[in-house]
Every structure is written in C-alpha cells, then in structure tokens.
Please model this.
Amino acid sequence: MKLAPAVQARWDALAARERTLVRGALVLVGAAVLWWLCLAPALQTVRTADAQHRSLQGELEQMQSLQAQAKALQAQPRLGYDEALRALQASVKALGTHAQLGVVGERATVTFKGVQAEVLAQWLAQARVNARALPTDARLTRQGASTGAANWDGTVVLSLPSR
Model:
C-alpha cells in the first residue's frame, strides 16, 4: 500500500527514533481497538455465561414440570357430564356457606362470598383436575384489603364436559 505523497514525505523526514515511537503508538492504538472490539465482548460473555446457564436451566426445569403436568392432565380419562357435575358439587359443598352452585346446561356458575385467596385457588385447581371444569369467566372483588387477610367475593363461570 502506497502512502499519500505528503504523508510519505513527512515519514521520510522523521528521525529513526521518531519512526520507532510512531510505530509503537500505532501498535498500541491497534491493540486497544482489537481489545475493545473483539476481546472485551467475548470475555464479558464468558464471565456471564455461568449465570445465564443457571437461569436458563431453571426456566427449562419449570417448563418441563409444566409439560409433565399437561401430559398428566391429558392422560386422565374423560369424564362424562354427570360425573363432572358430581365432582364439582362435592368441591363446592366442601366450601360450606362460602359458595353456591348454579348449573344451566353445560355451564356452572359458582358464587363466592368471603373466601380466602388460598382456598379459592385450591378450589379452582381441584375443579379443573377433578371435575374437568374449565373456567370461562371470573368476576371477583377483593374485600378487606386493608386488614391484611383479604377475602374474595364474586362469581366464576365454568364449562363442564359436554353430555
């Protein structure tokens, strides 16, 4: 590669010691650019790879757990309408006076009054697994939020297996 005539003339005018210093400065600048553009990002990736691996491993385990749950639900035998309704009635009856069940066709409406959040979540999971009832609509309001132990009022509409 030929340098521009003005640059070549200036280079030729430098003393040998100055040329050596300029070459050293160019090598230093080149090494710094190489470091910032090529090596530093790669080293940063190597430093954070272990933490990213642990995070992704946790996500993978969670996804595999969800997959196993989905397969277990799919493997359960199908329930008929009558069996599903009996299972749903039993789960609502277990809530006592806090819940009432109304059924119209293949839709069941459960009305809640003063049910704790944990109890409601457990009931919903039980209704999903035991009665194969799928929630289609939920209208819930939180009562007593300022007291710490909040209860829930409202309705949940569930779809039962077809007849």
The beta strands are 99-104, 107-116, 134-143, 151-159. The first helix runs from residue 5 to 13.
